Amino acid sequence: MSRLRSLDLPRSLVVRRVVALDNRVEIEVGLRKRSAVCPDCQCPTRRIHSFYQRKLADLPWQGRPATLIVSVPRFFCQTMLCPRRTFVTPLEGITVRHGRQTTRLADLHYYIAHTLGGSAGARMTVRLCCPISADTLVRRLLSRVQNTTKGTALTRVVGVDDWAWRRGHHYGTIVVDLEKNDVIDLLPDRDADTLARWLQVHPGIEIIARDRAGTYADGCRRGAPSALQVTDRWHLLKNLSDAFVSILDRFTTTVRTLTRQMNVSTVVSKISETIRAHPEEAQAVVRSASGERRDILFKEALALKAAGHSIQAIATTIGVERKTVRRWFQRGHAPPWKRTVPSRSILVAEISQKGCTSG
Ligand SMILES: [Zn+2]
Predict the structure, then answer these.
(1) Where does the record place the Transposase IS204/IS1001/IS1096/IS1165 DDE domain (predicted)?
(2) For residues 173 and 292, which has the higher predicted lDDT (pLDDT)?
């Protein structure tokens, strides 16, 4: 009996039996409370009509999926004038009406979907012994998000970014309340119109942290023209990283030569000296940098191919995607790098004027 008491179940349940099968565990439980109040006449009763069973998927137990088999009483209403003869009470704190899983398992699935999304989340639930399909995981996340949004206070700061309904195939937009750190909504696509409409029906948003996509800029501008658009920490770091790599690309030959001869710290100091020695060339050299780097990599790839290496081995060696290497060989050269002149973004303009960042 002490083992049964040690099961971590809601206080309203009494464990009657635990059946450990090969591939799952069944826990038979009853309700501790043996009285109820009629939902119509509000009169209490202890007279039980019958019992019926509800099977609820629960948190896994000892590495096996667990099922709660709850014996639920149906009560008689003893008030003569009440139109209701029998009734059952909801399993509050255990599951929702017509639910087929416990609330705590639903919570676990929600957190997994929130963190990993559909496909990866579904794979994780298999490892955790509480399997659920990717579609169901996403549907439940969406359902809870919509329920949470109803009747909540106005949101002031939101984050807007891509979200994969199905990675590589179908993308939507995720809207997060950055003050509560909670998902507010999942939009079906990444269109500016969709985001603009969403913002129009959610007034009061003052700050929008978004990624650099032009469609999001357009949607924010039309949907919430008075909101301040900022970039988040991740995108700031990505911008910085891209800029740093494009500068390093100018010195590809130097870097590759030095790395064969010196340790990393010496290489970094040498590169810094070289960059400082040619500040006036900065704009011009960055433009040709990527193409120059690709030419060097292409020559290395040709040499490896001549030595009999496979495309996969070549890609791994020079640090380029396999399909990129194949494309280079098909074309007979590495494609030249064409830098388009960037338009001045509203994001950059506002950040530079107000010095505001999120995150
Ligand atoms: Zn009644």
Answers:
(1) 158-258
(2) 173
